[in-house]
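Sequence only, no structure available. Ideas?
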Amino acid sequence: RLVLWNDNLRMASGCSNEELQGMSVLDFHDESQHGVIAEEIGKIFRLGEYASEADVVFKDGTIRTLFFNSRRIVYNNTTCLVGTAFDVTEQKKAESKRRLFAKNLEKVNTAARVFIHSGNEGQNATEDKLKANLQDLVIPHLKKLKASSLNAAQRKHLKALEDSLQDVLSPFVTSLLLTYSNLTPQEIQVADLIRRGNGTKEIAD
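Reply:
I predicted one. Tokens follow.
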């Protein structure tokens, strides 16, 4: 049960100090998760320190994903836990979008490989399908990702994805695949990075 808290918890939860006094930690979680949360709390008492993620339900029904870092302490001669919680809801949403984007991009890559190895027969139809896949499966998620909260590393990868999409139908990549079909995808990627003028360190990154 809660003993002490800061103003951030009071404001985020929407509860008054009087409501928070004596509340159980389980009151912030869906009833279906009470067993799991109780087990997590038990780990902190046993191990002395523990970190985990959990969905928290606030007073207005809002559900947010928080990352908890907790430690066992002695307070007023009683064994207690002190913890901090960081809201990672937006990061989790961005990660989910990134995974979905990567999944759809792989579908497009498969279509691209089929297009490249199919020869001249039906080339125009396959190219139209590839462009449609890009437009319908990838571009919408790309726009959503660009508008979300991304860190510098994620934005760097997103930029690389954009550049790769622009080169899906690049004459250089197409001719390279047709001429050197024994190259692995990674070797083709390195060749393309060299063509762009990237140095060794940039290619390694």
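The chain has a mean pLDDT of 79.
Hope that gets you unstuck.
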